[in-house]
């Protein structure tokens, strides 16, 4: 079973940033050029790059598309999302060179529509981002850059998509995002047992190489690395060696 280490770059106003627990008021801005940073990750051996348009995720339009397109031109395989609200947005990302489009809010709000895209364009072209918060006895699924609450739960949607052939699932425990508290391993064990046909990407809280190994052992098929790489807690080469 393959396991993929995926560095992440979150974009806001063309800058490299990180949020804590998805809170736009708790932003850290890093002094990296996003295209140069992506090049460094490619040089270190990364096969994939995860790009998030945070402006788009909250506002509903592809605000950082020019940056995404510039990075894609350099040759990395990219999965990218944030602000995808229509099939035209999907096409714009594919036209920009994105290999796999990440669907978050739309995957939660309009699953039948997304199911049609999976069938028409190929399930391997999409990653479903079902980022979650455990509240009131259930894994809730906030949308719109984690600023709005939805009625559907992870228990509802993950198996529904698996039954319809979806292949890639990105799942962040929002409480751990940007907190360097380690992955929620129980969440990934649960998903590995519930939707074994889907390649689950773990995200939120990685702080050490041991966290990467633990996510792999819990059944995740990949990990997303953001803040830990930006702050030099370990190198990407070390992570890839895991």
UniProtKB/TrEMBL annotation:
Enzyme nomenclature, EC number: 5.3.1.16
Keywords: Amino-acid biosynthesis, Cytoplasm, Histidine biosynthesis, Isomerase
Residues at the active site: 10 (proton acceptor), 131 (proton donor)
UniProt GO molecular function: 1-(5-phosphoribosyl)-5-[(5-phosphoribosylamino)methylideneamino]imidazole-4-carboxamide isomerase activity
One Gene Ontology biological process: L-tryptophan biosynthetic process
Cell location: Cytoplasm
Catalytic activity entry: 1-(5-phospho-beta-D-ribosyl)-5-[(5-phospho-beta-D-ribosylamino)methylideneamino]imidazole-4-carboxamide = 5-[(5-phospho-1-deoxy-D-ribulos-1-ylimino)methylamino]-1-(5-phospho-beta-D-ribosyl)imidazole-4-carboxamide
GO cellular component: cytoplasm
Primary localization: cytoplasm
Pathway given in the UniProt record: Amino-acid biosynthesis; L-histidine biosynthesis; L-histidine from 5-phospho-alpha-D-ribose 1-diphosphate: step 4/9
Superkingdom of this protein's organism: Bacteria
Gene3D superfamilies in UniProt: Aldolase class I
Similarity remark: Belongs to the HisA/HisF family.
Name the record gives this protein: 1-(5-phosphoribosyl)-5-[(5-phosphoribosylamino)methylideneamino] imidazole-4-carboxamide isomerase
Organism listed in the record: Dyella japonica A8
């Amino acid at each position: 079973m393959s396991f993929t280490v995926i560095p992440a770059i979150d974009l806001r106003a063309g800058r490299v940033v990180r949020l804590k627990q998805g809170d736009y008021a708790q932003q850290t801005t890093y002094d990296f050029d996003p295209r140069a940073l992506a090049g460094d990750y490619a040089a270190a051996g990364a096969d994939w790059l995860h790009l998030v348009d945070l402006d788009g995720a909250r506002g509903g339009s592809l605000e950082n598309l020019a940056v995404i397109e510039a990075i894609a031109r350099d040759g990395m395989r990219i999965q990218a999302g944030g602000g995808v609200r229509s099939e035209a947005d999907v096409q714009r990302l594919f036209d920009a060179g994105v290999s796999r489009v990440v669907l978050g809010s739309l995957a939660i709000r309009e699953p039948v529509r997304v199911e049609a895209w999976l069938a028409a364009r190929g399930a391997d072209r999409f990653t479903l981002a079902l980022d979650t918060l455990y509240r009131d006895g259930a894994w809730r699924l906030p949308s719109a850059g984690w600023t709005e609450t939805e009625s559907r739960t992870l228990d509802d949607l993950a198996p529904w998509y698996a039954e319809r052939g979806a292949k890639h699932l990105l799942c962040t425990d929002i409480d751990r995002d940007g907190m360097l508290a380690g992955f929620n391993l129980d969440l990934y064990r649960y998903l590995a047992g519930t939707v074994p046909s889907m390649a689950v990407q773990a995200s939120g809280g990685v702080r050490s190489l041991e966290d990467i190994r633990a996510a792999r052992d819990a059944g995740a098929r990949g990990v997303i690395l953001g803040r830990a790489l930006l702050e030099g807690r370990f190198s990407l080469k070390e992570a890839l060696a895991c």
